[in-house]
Amino acid sequence: MRRTSASLVAGTLVAALAWASSPSTPAVALDPSVGVADLTQDLNQILSDSRLTIARAGVVVKSAESGEELYATDAGKLLIPASNTKLFTSAAAAETLGLDYRFATSVLSTGRKAGKVLTGDLVLRGTGDPTMLAEDYDALAAKVARAGVKVVTGKLVADDTWFDARRLGNDWAWDDETAYYAAPISALTASPDKDYDAGSVIVAVAAENGKVKVTTTPDTGYLKIVNRATAGSETDVLIERQHGTRTVEITGTVADPYQEWVAVDDPTAYASSLFRESLTRHGVKVLGRTVTGAAPEGARELAAHESMTLGELLVPFMKLSNNIHAEILTKAMGRKAADQGTWAAGLKVTTDFAKANGAQVINMRDGSGLSRRDGFSPGSIVQFLSAVRGKPWFDTWYKSLPIAGESERFVGGTLRSRMAGTPAAGNVHAKTGSLTGVTALSGYVTSADGEPLIFSIMLNQYLSGSPKDIEDKIAVRLAQFSRTKASVEPVELRATDPGPAGDLECSWLKPAQC
């Protein structure tokens, strides 16, 4: 049964300050029954949508200043959060690792150098940097060459021991194994683009002179390409890596250029192959084969690369809802807190932090929300979002959230095409979440009176027709909320085409950018 709650008190604070600042506006005497009752009625009406008849809907709205609960239905029920899980992972990372945290990738030598010959092994050691590009591995290889090394008599050792060897998260679907949004996790990995989709390669096809040409970004021989596609009058092509292999099979017809992001089978082997190819280009020959292992004590550093800061990484991570960033940060937290780069250690850090900041109904199985066994209550999410407002890193973290109706990808993110032209545009800062039959939206909005509100909307188990517009209607209504005005005219949401992504977050299907 749906329960609504509206606390009717004699006064409230009207906020005009930034979200990160402490409340200091003097109280204004208002009739609290004006506006709050209308809000309750309107949200009940929005949630009476027939698509939710057999679904589960949890919604909580609170004043950020007073903690007053303005609306609640199923506030304490455990619901699937999808990518709302990243709210907890990102905040815990900011708290545990710090906004200045950087991932390091280094090249070490285990032997002695005599002239241009290095007698011993060359070690490539990673700590999980999801922003490493092929050009970054090339820059490391160039530094090795500039150090005067032309021949390595030993092996190329890929040291990914900063994290454990477990590659895939709890409960991840086996048929997502080749999908870039469920790429395997390793302390050594590489991204094909500056969205930093670690552990994946972009495979592109184009029709040229009656044939189908295949290219990859980065240009790499790591994948085995089996091209069975033909040039045709339309583009109807499937680009798919075969389960558990490096083989990408391409079938169908190609008229217009098309590309697909494909997860690699082994990110450590992939990254070390990029580095080895770069060494060859720079005239450095490694006589031994490529193996995995830990760098020995006393190995000497020849070259190093540092990532952008965590504060900077939060933007592509949160705006584009990057699953791999979430899982890498989870293992990085485990490594820092318990010297164990594992999901178990990292999830304990996040869970402990979440519980210490108001999230009492919580079950975390991964850092991204890809698992369907992740569970939070909307009440816990709101309590958590309220608690972190006082953190020193809050302003940076808040700015990393997607912003409704802002068309720039790295501003609006997964909300860039939603709520445009409404009072919520440029106002709502919130994290989206999408799985089949699951959608969520949780974050912050400023009311028409300038009062900061915190909300969580979690809709589960609907069968057809994405109810994201229900989330949008609620968010817009909160942006219109006034304690002094009896009612508001409803805003007509612009019709949006969900495109090929359907119910899924648009960032999950790369050709259909948000």
TrEMBL record:
GO terms for biological process: peptidoglycan metabolic process; proteolysis. Keywords: Carboxypeptidase, Hydrolase, Protease, Signal. Its EC number is 3.4.16.4. It comes from the Bacteria. InterPro entries: Beta-lactam/transpept-like, Peptidase_S13. GO terms for molecular function: serine-type D-Ala-D-Ala carboxypeptidase activity. Transmembrane segments: none annotated. Residues 1-29 form the signal peptide. Belongs to the peptidase S13 family. PANTHER family: D-ALANYL-D-ALANINE CARBOXYPEPTIDASE, PENICILLIN-SENSITIVE CARBOXYPEPTIDASE A. This is D-alanyl-D-alanine carboxypeptidase/D-alanyl-D-alanine-endopeptidase. It comes from Nonomuraea mesophila.
